[in-house]
Design goal:
213 residues; 8% strand; alpha+beta; 8 helices; four-stranded mixed beta sheet; globular
């Protein structure tokens, strides 16, 4: 069952899933959703009621949320080695960092950008804790490299490098050497280059979004 369809937009987190699909090197179909209309159309809301991209269909299976999609693809195509096996001790680290990036780290960066009030008095009640703690934790995770699971490149690295790239590009994150080296090295992977080229080619055909999705 290789009938994979990616619902996306080149100005979205769908670029992360595109990279993942290029890493597993399988055929897939791309459906670009327009922010002003088709992304909220009834037929698409049946796939993702949030009216957001990306979403992935695999036959009758629907997966949404970037980290979930990448984890799903890694497990569906184990021959590509993009997730430690269930019996591999590294599986714990893989899951830890995959969900840390999708949860606490992204929340911390969003809080930083929008100047949400997270301080010592309320950090214990917030999923990401104090913002600087989340950033420092990400730095420590990468220092043991070359990848989040040691010598094995995984879907967690696709998520991490994509997130860090965006935060650095937007100057939301201090360009610490460990972040910039990691991003530059992973963005140089052939699959990442192919994925970026494919999405960049779509950019010229579309209008910029009025908001994020």
């Amino acid at each position: 069952m290789n009938d994979l369809t990616l619902y996306t937009h080149p100005w979205s987190r769908g670029r992360v899933v595109r990279w993942m699909l290029e890493e597993i090197a399988v055929n897939y179909t791309v459906v670009v959703k327009d922010y002003g209309s088709s992304i909220k159309a009834p037929e698409y809301l049946k796939i993702n009621p949030m009216g957001k991209v990306p979403a992935l269909t695999h036959g009758d299976i629907v997966v949404t949320e970037v980290a979930a999609i990448c984890a799903y693809l890694a497990d569906q195509f184990p021959e590509e080695g993009l997730a430690p096996a269930l019996t591999n001790p590294a599986r714990g680290a893989y899951l830890r960092w995959l969900f840390f990036i999708a949860g606490p780290f992204e929340m911390a960066m969003t809080a930083k950008v929008y100047h949400w009030n997270i301080d010592a008095d309320n950090a214990a009640a917030v999923g990401c804790g104090q913002i600087e703690d989340a950033i420092n934790t990400m730095e420590l995770a990468l220092k043991s490299g070359p990848y989040l699971c040691g010598e094995q490149f995984t879907a967690a690295d696709v998520i991490a490098a994509s997130n860090l790239f965006w935060q650095l590009e937007q100057k939301a994150l201090e360009p610490r050497p460990v972040f910039t080296e990691y991003v530059q090295r992973l963005q140089a992977r052939p699959a990442a280059i192919r994925a970026n080229a494919l999405d960049d080619a779509l950019v010229s055909q579309l209008s910029p979004p009025a908001g994020s999705a």
